[in-house]
Amino acid sequence: MRERNALLASSMSLFMLGSMLTACSPDASPAADGGNNSASSGKQKKITISVYYPTPDLVEKRALEDDKIRRFTEKYPNVEIVKSDWQYDPNQIGIKMGANEAPTLFNTYATEGKFLAEKGWAADITSLFNAYEFKDQMNPILQQQFVIGGKIYGIAQQGYVTGTIVNKKMLEDKKIAVPPLDWTWDDMYNTAKAAAEPAKGISGIAPMGKGNEAGWNWTNFLFEAGGDIQKVEGGKVTALFHSEAGVKALQFYRSLAWEAKAIPKDWALGWGDAVGAFAQSRTAMVIAGPDGPIDQALNQGGMKPADVLFYPMPAAAKGGKHTGVLGGDYLVINPKATQEEQEAAFRYATFDYFSDKGLASIEASIQQRKKDNKYFVPPVIEYFTSDSAYGKKVKAVYDKYDNVYPYSPDITKYLDGKSEAQFNTQDYYATITSVVQDVFSRKDADPKAVLDAAAKLVQEKYYNSIKVE
DSSP letter string over 10-46? Predict the structure, then answer.
C-alpha cells in the first residue's frame, strides 16, 4: 500500500529509468538496436509524451530527471518530453482519465495493478515488454505484480517487503538485548516493553494509527498469523480477515498498547508521524518499507548506519514465516496514448535500465550524497535481480563507498513478501484503521467483535457487489 507518498516520492529514485531499449526511432521495434545507436537519419514523426516528474522538494531527483530528459531527447530528437508533477492518487485517476489529463507515463504502487487494468486505465504493454532485451533480468518478485490475466500492465521500479526498522543504539544505551533477525512476536513485545518510557514520551514501537497506513501496518500481523484479507471463489469475494488469525493479530496489538504500554501515548500517527518519531529517537521501532525511514534516520536524525537495523517482520511463533506486505513502485502507460506514444513512453521508462549510464547515475548520486555529508540508502528490492550480471555491477558500485547503507547480508533469506488484496484494498485498509483505533482507545474492546463488525461492513458495502469473471 502506502509508502505511497514517501515511496512514490522516492520511486524515481536515484536509479533513474532509462533506455537500453533499442529502436532507432519510436516507429521501430523497441529491441532493434540494443539502445546503442543514435537516432536514425531522415525525417521522423514528431511525438509528445508527458512523464512523471518528481515534486519540487525532491531537488536531487529533479536534477537527475532533467539530465535524463536531456539525454533521451538527444537520442530521440523527434520526441518532446512534457514534465508532469501529478502524483498518482486512486481518488483522482478516474477524473484524470475521463478528462484526458493523465500523463502518458505515470507512477503508481503495487496495489493498483488489477484496479488499473480492469478499469482500462493502464495500457497492455505485453508486446513491448516481450520485445525488451533485458526482460529476463527484471526482478520477477516485483514485475509479477503487474501481470494480470497473463498480460503486462506496468514496469517495475523498486520494491520492498514491509519489515521493522530498529534503533539499535537506543536498545544498547538502555542495555536491552538486540533481538535476532529470526525473531518472534514475543521478541518484539519484550523489546518494545523494555524500550518504552511513557513518562518521557518514548515508545518501544510506533504502529501507525491513522490514515490507511494503520490498516496496512496491522495487515502484516494478520499475514504472520496465517490469515488472509479475502478469498476469491466462484465469482465472489469473501472477507477472511476476521478469522482466528485476525483475532490473534488484533490481540497482539491490544497487548502492545495496554499490557506492555509500548505504543505512543498519542498513537494517532500516520506514516510521516511514525517515521519522524523514529528519526527523532522517540520510538525504538517502526513498521515500514526500509529505505524511507532509514534515510530520514541517517540524514535528518543524525544516526549512523550501525545505529539502525532493518528486520523482517517477526514470526508469530518460532519457526514461522516472517511475512510482510509486498509493495513497490511502478510506471504505467496511458492506454489513450497512440501506439507511437506508448512505444516512446516505454523507451523512456527503461532508458537507464541495465545501462552503463544507469550505473554512472547511481555512482554520481552516491558521490553527491557523500559530498553533502549524507548517506545513500538503496531500495531493499531493486528492479533487477541481485544475481543478474547488472545486479553484480551495482553491488560492486555500492561496495566502493562507505556512505551506502548496508542491509544485513542475511536479511533476504527471512523476507517473505505477500501481495495485498486483489479487490478494494484501500477500502479494506480504511476499515481496519477504524478497528486499530478502537483497540488502541478502548481497553475493553473485544478483538473478535470489532473484526466481525468490520468484516460485515466490508462484505456488504464492497465485496457483495463484485462479480469476478
Answer: HTT-SS--BB----SSTTS-TTSSTT-SPPPSS----
- The residues facing 19 across adjacent strands are 351
**Phi, psi at residue 261, to the nearest 5°?**
50, 45
Euclidean distance between CA atoms 248 and 117, whole angstroms: 35
The CA–CA distances, whole Å, from 76 to 219, 318, 348, 422 equal 45, 56, 10, 38
Residue from 460, 427, 469 nearest 238 by CA: 460
At residue 61 the predicted structure's pLDDT band, cuts being 50, 70 and 90, is confident
Listed residue (122, 295, 144, 281) closest to 201, CA to CA? 281
Query: What sign for the dihedral angle of Cα 173, 374, 159, 206?
Result: positive
Q: Is 212 helix (H, G, I), strand (E, B) or coil?
A: helix
DSSP state of 146: G
* Cβ-based burial of 64 (10 A; exposed 0-12, middle 13-18, buried ≥19): buried
Q: Over the stretch 132-155, which tens digit does the pLDDT of each residue have?
A: 999 999 999 899 989 999 999 999
Q: Is the pLDDT of residue 59 over 70?
A: yes
- Contact status, residue 9 vs residue 275, Cβ threshold 8 Å: no
Q: What is the mean pLDDT of residues 422-431?
A: 90
As a whole number of angstroms, the distance between CA 321 and CA 78 comes to 51
User: What is the grid cell recorded at 380?
Assistant: 531493499
Beta bridge partners of 418: 325
Place of cell 506492555: 260
The residue whose grid cell reads 511502478 is 330
pLDDT at residue 42, rounded to an integer: 43
- Give dist(CA 128, CA 30) in Å, integer: 7
Assigned C-alpha cell, 204: 518501544
Average pLDDT over residues 408-419: 90
User: 221-277 pLDDT, tens per residue?
Assistant: 999 999 999 998 998 999 999 999 999 999 999 999 999 999 999 999 999 999 999
Residue 37: pLDDT over 50:
no
pTM: 0.80
Comparing CA positions, the residue from 63, 57, 56 lying closest to residue 14 is 63
Is the alpha carbon torsion for 274, 182, 256, 162 positive or negative?
Answer: positive
Q: What is the Cα–Cα distance from 469 to 459, expressed in whole angstroms? A: 18
Q: How many CB atoms lie within 10 A of CB 244?
A: 11
Residues 162 and 274: their CA atoms lie apart, in Å, by 14
